[in-house]
Design brief:
Blueprint: E1 4-10, H1 17-27, E2 32-37, H2 44-50, E3 54-57, H3 63-73, E4 78-81, H4 93-99, E5 105-115, H5 122-139, E6 151-154, H6 155-158, H7 170-180, E7 185-192, H8 203-218
Parallel strand pairs: 1-2, 1-4, 2-3, 5-7
Antiparallel strand pairs: 4-6, 5-6
Helix pairs in contact: 5-8, 7-8
């Protein structure tokens, strides 16, 4: 049987980490749950440990560093990356794992699926679509949602991907590397749920994404 790790980058997710882990245990009961924590100051780690998560502490700030650390430490046949805030559909993880039998990288597309009402602003929606268009044109690889936070990888792919982004460009980094290294990729329609709070993503982050895609396209 193939081994599976589910990666949960966290920073103060005490309100959702328990439910996220419980849902993961239901749909993939044999999976290793790996919480990569960016020095949470709430009860995130306490809850994760009580539910049996493997804990990786990341002192460097940013999701990209967390995933870089996870990829280095993992040895599972398959790895699924998903946010711990209940915005992405945990129930779809088995679908992603099934596709990894044929593909090296699978990403969840919110634009091929749909957004729950209030889950994304019009500005962010347009921005994400523009970034995906830039990625499609630069890499000659159609992608509808390059900024998605739900990805799955075979071991051969996550061990080969170089993480050079250290801020909001992580997903663009994953896409660019996957294309440049010739990995077989596919998108899966998913539903994106509403979460509390305000998005931290700003216009400048979209510009940085596009610049990163451009730099990475011509980097040796």
């Amino acid at each position: 049987m193939s081994s599976v790790s589910v990666l949960l980058p966290t920073l103060n997710e005490e309100e959702s980490i328990g439910k996220t882990m419980t849902e993961i245990r239901v749909v993939v009961p044999d999976a290793e749950i790996v919480v990569i924590d960016g020095l949470s100051t709430d009860k995130t780690l306490e809850i994760a440990k009580s539910l049996g998560a493997r804990i990786l502490l990341e002192k460097r700030k940013g999701k990209a560093f967390a995933i870089e650390t996870a990829f280095r430490e993992l040895d599972s046949d398959y790895a699924v990356m998903i946010d711990a805030d209940l915005t992405y559909p945990v129930k779809d993880i088995p679908k992603f794992l099934s596709l990894l039998k044929e593909y090296d990288v699978v990403l969840g597309s919110r634009f091929k699926g749909h957004f729950e009402e209030g889950s994304i602003s019009l500005t962010n929606s347009i921005g994400n679509q523009l970034i995906s268009l830039v990625a499609t044109v630069l890499y000659l690889k159609p992608v509808s949602d390059v900024c998605t936070g739900m990805w799955a990888f075979r071991k051969n792919s996550y061990k080969a991907i170089e993480i050079t982004s250290h801020t909001f460009e992580l997903e663009c980094n994953l896409f660019a590397q996957s294309v440049k290294k010739g990995f077989r990729m596919c998108e899966v329609p998913i539903v994106y749920a509403q979460r509390g709070g305000t998005s931290k993503v700003q216009l400048v982050d979209g510009v940085k994404d596009c610049l990163f895609l451009l730099r990475e396209r011509f980097r040796p």
